Amino acid sequence: MKIRSIAVFCGSNSGRDSLFMSQTTRLGHLLAEKGITLIYGGGKKGLMGAIADAVIDAGGKARGIIPRVLTEWEQEHKELTELVVVPDMHTRKKMMYEWSDAAVILPGGFGTMDELFEMLTWNQLKIHDKKIFILNISGFYDALIAYLRKAESEGFLYDPLDERVVVCEDADELVARL
Q1: pLDDT digits (tens, 9 = 90+) for 5-52
Q2: What is the rounded distance in angstroms from the CA atom of residue 154 to the CA atom of residue 106?
Q3: What's CA 168's distance to the chain center, in Å?
Q4: Bridge partners, residue 38, by sequence
Q5: Which value, to the nearest 10 degrees, does the dihedral of the CA atoms of residues 74, 77, 82, 87 take?
Q6: Which CATH architecture best describes the domain 5-174?
Q7: Helical axes 89-99 vs 110-124, angle rounded to 10°
Q8: CA angle 38, 10, 176 (to 5 degrees)
Q9: Which residue intervals of the chain are DSSP H helices?
């Protein structure tokens, strides 16, 4: 399946490691170069804003979906190809899943984990079959990946983890594996 659009879930903060920002920007440039539309949370701050800015700066398309309650918190991005303001987080996530062919998880906090685990759960339940990529910048997700492998080895997953999740160390590897 050709990937035409990709949902990116990430932090509305930038994190402390400068590689988070540089790899996020690199990914945005690569997505634009490949003609892949960015589907993301619509914010202007942190890694969210960085990936949208990078896609736009490289001439790509960026579609944001932001819940009304977060328009001030995450500072909605006004320069997007399209920005949709929705009533709540559930609507945001559902639209992001529907509009994308795959998902990428960048460093982030609770919201990013919520989005990752909902995607994984829906994938396991066959609600969708979209590939999920984890961009493990600077080993940010090492502990999470160890947990997922443990859940797999202990028999808590229905399918092999590698059928659901692709772990990449940098943006170039991720785009090469799309």
Answers
A1: 999 999 999 999 999 999 999 999 999 999 999 999 999 999 999 999
A2: 26
A3: 13
A4: 6, 62
A5: 30
A6: 3-Layer(aba) Sandwich (3.40)
A7: 60
A8: 55
A9: 18-33, 46-57, 89-99, 110-124, 142-153, 171-176
- Please identify which residue in the block is written with the tokens 């400068």: 18
Considering the entire predicted model, what is its pTM? 0.94
Coil, helix or strand at residue 3:
coil
Report d(CA 65, CA 133) in Å as an integer.
20
How many Cβ atoms sit within 10 Å of the Cβ of residue 150?
10
Read off the tokens for 137.
């910048």
In sequence order, the 6+-apart residues with CB closer than 8 A to the CB of 15 are 21, 46, 47, 107, 140
Tell me the pLDDT tens digit for each residue of 77-98.
889 999 999 999 999 999 999 9
Q: Domain extents for the chain? A: 5-174
Pick from 29, 78, 75: nearest CA to 51: 29
> For residues 65 and 87, is the Cβ–Cβ distance under 8 A?
no
Sheet containing strand 165-168, edge to edge, reads: 82-86, 62-67, 37-40, 5-9, 102-105, 131-135, 165-168
Maximal CA-CA distance, the chain: 46
